[in-house]
Design goal:
With 546 residues, this protein is mainly alpha-helical. The protein has 4 domains: 3-15 and 121-278, HUPs (Rossmann fold, 3-Layer(aba) Sandwich), CATH 3.40.50; 283-369, Glutamyl-tRNA Synthetase, domain 2, CATH 1.10.1160; 372-435, no CATH class; 449-545, Arc Repressor Mutant, subunit A. It has 23 helices and 13 strands. Strands 1-2-3 form a 3-stranded parallel sheet, with helices on one face. A 3-stranded antiparallel sheet has the order 4-5-8. The protein has a 3-stranded mixed sheet with strand order 12-11-13, with no helix packed on it.
């Protein structure tokens, strides 16, 4: 077989040589030990927690070592491409403070551009031509129907499915038949001629999992599709080499592809980057654990966290507890330290499935939000509301002084201990909604309607907005006493049978009337923030409803 002649037929014309590409994309000028990592999503419009998991690991490794993190877009699959997906990826990752140094739509150095794979077609074709010249790649004319029949036969025989060995029928086509097919315009893909043996094992040092053993690749994988666009496997090997990637941290689902990638790097004459396969994110589902699922688990999508309004630092803190085994201990000692100061290490990454627990994330989120000032909380909520809030919620920010007072109360600012009532922006906005609109009753009264009317009537008759908290509470006690409730809690505890209830029960009636809820921060302060007119209107309305 004249491979050079075949290569010229498949890829006519001159292409830059490998040496020219090596000069065009030189090794990076970085300090010793600096890592070059990347995130390389497909523009499908769906970016998930697993992407963030890998992104945090790659970002920390790159920047802790004085290296570079870049963004590459693997857009070779046009069928799955979604308009605006790249911008959505960047926006989602920026929300979680993932900072790229260069790449698609990022800026920075363009020395290793272009960053979109479809713009790098010439490079892929140049190396595809070279593989054909070396006899390491060949055209395959098999139709979809033939490939389906092949899979059915292999499945029936309980064999590994794929295009290999005796099942790689186009691998042994003669020169005459190849040219006859080409002359007839028969569609073809380009396949790698694998030299691997499925009976042989390879020992590999995984940056995360340590030493592992994998089987050699014997599959003649497709490297160029029928439209001349490369497959992921082929394109990523070339791009990682010429973008000078030193370490690829990716999901452990890619372990199955590792033998293919190692053979591709060898065939191309490139030194492969180091690979580290991080553990999968798992979920407790009854008595068993399973991987988080796009179909079953809305919390897998990063958009879920943005729409709910999770505080970015809280999500990042939780991800780091799953990524590095020593992070949680460090975080307990340094709760307010910049996360960048944590000494992140690949060696401390988990080797088996990490259990993702939304309840634990919520607890972390409460703690992180409780550390904010009222002004910082307002800014966070405003940013969320501008993108995801209702018109009514956006209107809260018109009354900024009132909103700050409400947030200070609900967060316990200035008190002995901070409250942890807020979990997410969306939940926080619902929590403070009674400050800005007539409350929707969420809790039921514990006393009957006639008693409620009497209590509310008694309060309205005595209420004076000018009262301080002590005078206000003294009047609540008066209302309690005249309606058969114990004005002092010690009296009620001593002889509960002598009373209809305690002053706490009376306060609860007022609380529900004013806020719609049985549990809130200090009621006198709430009334003070609402103002006398609004407080009276709410109590009067509740009395009528009773």
């Amino acid at each position: 077989m004249d491979y050079k002649k075949l290569a010229e037929r498949l890829f006519p014309g001159a292409y830059p040589t490998p040496e020219e590409y090596e000069r065009r994309y030189p090794p990076r000028d970085l300090p010793a030990g600096a890592e070059v990592t990347r995130l390389a999503p497909s523009p499908t419009g769906f970016i998930h927690l697993g992407n963030l998991f890998a992104a945090i690991a790659n970002e920390r490794v790159a920047h802790r070592s004085g290296g570079v993190l870049y963004l590459r877009i693997e857009d070779t699959d046009l069928k799955r491409k979604v308009d605006g997906a790249v911008e959505a990826v960047i926006r989602a990752l920026r929300y979680f403070d993932i900072t790229f140094d260069e790449g698609a739509e990022i800026g920075g150095s363009d020395l290793y551009a272009p960053w979109y794979q479809r713009e790098r077609a010439e490079i892929y074709r140049a190396f595809a031509k070279r593989l054909v010249e070396q006899g390491r790649a060949y055209p395959c004319f098999c139709t979809e129907e033939e490939l389906a029949a092949l899979r059915e036969e292999q499945t029936a025989k309980k064999l590994v499915t794929g295009y290999y060995g005796a099942y790689a029928k186009c691998r042994s086509l003669g020169e005459e038949e190849i040219y006859r097919n080409l002359d007839a315009g028969k569609p073809y893909v380009l396949r790698l001629r694998s030299l691997g043996d499925a009976e042989k094992k390879i020992k590999f040092r995984d940056a995360v999992k340590g030493e592992i053993t994998v089987t050699e690749n014997d599959q003649d994988i497709v490297i160029l599709k029928s439209d001349g666009i490369p497959t992921y496997h082929f394109a990523h090997a070339i791009d990682d080499h010429f973008m000078r990637t030193t370490l690829v941290i990716r999901g452990e689902e890619w372990l199955a592809s590792l033998p293919i990638h190692l053979e591709l790097f060898g065939a191309l004459g490139f030194k492969p980057p180091r690979y580290g396969h991080n553990c999968s994110l798992m979920k407790q589902d009854g008595p068993t654990r399973r991987k988080l699922s796009k179909r079953k688990d809305p919390e897998l999508a990063l958009e879920f966290y943005r729409k709910e309004g999770y505080f970015p630092r809280a999500v990042k803190v939780y991800m780091l507890t799953l990524l590095n085994s020593n992070f949680e201990e460090w975080y307990l000692k340094n709760p307010e330290a910049p996360l960048e100061t944590f000494p992140y290490k690949v060696e401390k990454m988990g080797k088996s499935g990490a259990l993702f627990d939304l309840d634990k994330l919520n607890d972390i989120s409460k703690s992180e939000l409780a550390r904010l000032t009222a002004e910082e909380m307002l800014a966070f909520l405003k940013g969320w509301a501008e993108e995801f809030g209702s018109d009514a919620e956006k209107a809260y920010f018109v009354e900024e002084e009132k909103l700050l007072s409400a947030l200070s109360l609900c967060m316990g600012v200035g008190g002995k201990k901070r409250r942890k009532d807020f979990v997410t922006a969306s939940q926080a906005m619902k929590t403070i909604s009674y400050f800005f609109a007539a409350p929707v009753r969420e809790d039921e009264y514990a006393v009957d309607a006639p008693t409620r009317r009497a209590l509310l009537d008694g309060f309205l008759a005595r209420y004076d907005e000018a009262d301080d908290s002590a005078a206000w509470f003294a009047k609540v006690k008066e209302v309690a006493a005249e309606n058969g409730f114990a004005a002092e809690m010690r009296d009620f505890k001593a002889s509960p049978e002598n009373y209809r209830g305690s002053v706490a029960d009376v306060a609860e009636v007022l609380r529900i009337a004013v806020t719609g809820r049985a549990n809130t921060p200090d009621l006198w302060t709430i009334m003070h923030i609402l103002g006398g007119e609004e407080t009276r209107a709410r109590v009067a309305r509740a009395k009528e409803e009773a």
